[in-house]
Structure formats: structure tokens, C-alpha cells
Amino acid sequence: MYILEIVKQFNLLMKSAIQGPSCIDPNICRGDCCHIHIDIPKALAEYYIEQNLAKKSDFIRGSVFSFAIDVKKENAKCVFFDTKLNGCSLHASGMKPPQCWIYPTGFSNEPGEEKQFAENGTIRCKKSSGWWVIDLEKTKTAQELLKKYQEFSEREFKQENSLSNIEKRLELLKGQLVHYRPSKIAGIKDGWDKFSPLPADGMSLTFKQFCGSKAQDLNNNHYFDCPHICGPAAERIIEKIKQKIYSYIEMYGAKETYTFYELFK
């Protein structure tokens, strides 16, 4: 695939164009720059899954590209950070996301935004100095490849969030909603291939407008006692979501979770 070849070539160029300290040396670093969600296209995420380097749950819906790499709950580090290696498990694959190569050098040795230099003149990262671009021709080529990578990812992102694809991911929502109490739903969460219910932190009245007449009593007793969302109510809210979500994304952008309050206000 076109985009995979771009990622591969980018990795080859940057790996040979930059020198610096060993990131896997625990005396230097312990994954201190691995605490962010890296945006990637779905095509690259699919490659990682096909190569048994990741699973679908390692990715969350992104707001820039189709997906973002998740972080582990126990240490807030990227899911590809290998504690035994003390480094990135994707490094040896030669298919790291391009963004992971850019920090801390960028594409040149010139001062730039947020770039820091050590007393010896080399570029610093969060934990060490000694970083330097040793082949500017290669990084220049890599920079051009990055533009193509971004263009592909942005096109794919628009396609993933087209009206037809959004409606396709909503198809399985009804079957999930009927297993939830209406008072315990706050919205929907976009996933790999389907939307799923977003649980409420406490009790929510947002779903009440889609319930039958018995739920409309003033003291809300019937609503809060309701054990699960019925089929007709699920159908009504899905239809409302279809009416609202695409225009919401057009106005505010796509993301992983959408509350009913923000969709329907």
C-alpha cells in the first residue's frame, strides 16, 4: 500500500540521518517522551494488527487522523512502550509512526519552536543531550514524505467520518443500548468499527425524552427504576443521533466520545 511504503521510507531515512544517545539505556531514559497519543491513519493501524504488533483495542478514535495510539492505564505510557526493552516495540519493525522520529531534532540543527540545545551545542531531549542531524539531504526528503503522509491521513480521516461510514458504525448500537438502563447512559463512544454506549458517571436524565409516557412522571421514579432501554426508545435516539452527529462533526470536528447533551443542545 502507498502509505505503508511512505512510512517505511521515512523510517529508513530518519534512522540513518540522526544520531543521539541510546533511548533504551535505563540510566538515560525510561520512556519519558512516550506519554502522548500519537495520531495515525487507519491504514497504519491495520498494518500493526495484521503483523500481530497490536490489537484493535490499542487504538482510539482520533480528532486529527482516523485513530490515535492509546496509552496504558497503569503507567500512562504508549501501548508500544516495552518495559523489558525499555523502549518502543515498533522500532525494530522499521514502521514507527513518522511523528515519533521528529522529536527532539526536527529535520535540521537550526533553532526552532521548543527545540533546546545543550552547552556543547547539541540538541537536547527531555533527559539527555547529544542529538544531531548528520544528513540534511535525507531529512529534507523525509520532510517531503511527511507531507504526503499527512495528506493521505487527512483524506482518510474525512472518509472515515463521512455520513455513510458514520451511519454504518451506528448500525450495531441498538443491540448494545437495550442492555443498559436509560438513566446510566450519557452518550456514545466511537470505536474501531462501531459506536457503543457511553456510560454516565452518575444518574442521567438526558435519555428520558426518548422514553415512553410512563417515564415522564414528575418525580422520575419510573425512569430511574427502568431496568433497560426498550427497542422503540433505542430506535428513537439512534434516529436523533443520525440527524445530529454529522453536522456536529462538520462544525466541531470528530472525536472519540459524544455526550447526548452536546449533540442535542
Task: Describe the structure in your own words.
The protein is α+β, with helices and mostly antiparallel strands. The protein has two domains: 159 residues, no CATH class; 102 residues, no CATH class. It is 37% helix and 13% strand. It contains nine helices and twelve strands. The strands form five sheets. It has a three-stranded antiparallel sheet with strand order 2-4-3. Strand 5 and strand 6 form a beta hairpin. Helix 1 packs antiparallel against helix 4 and helix 5 runs antiparallel to helix 8. The longest helix has 25 residues. The protein starts with a helix and ends with a helix. The mean pLDDT is 93.
Which properties best describe this structure?
alpha+beta; 2 domains; 9 helices; three-stranded antiparallel beta sheet; 265 residues; elongated; 37% helix
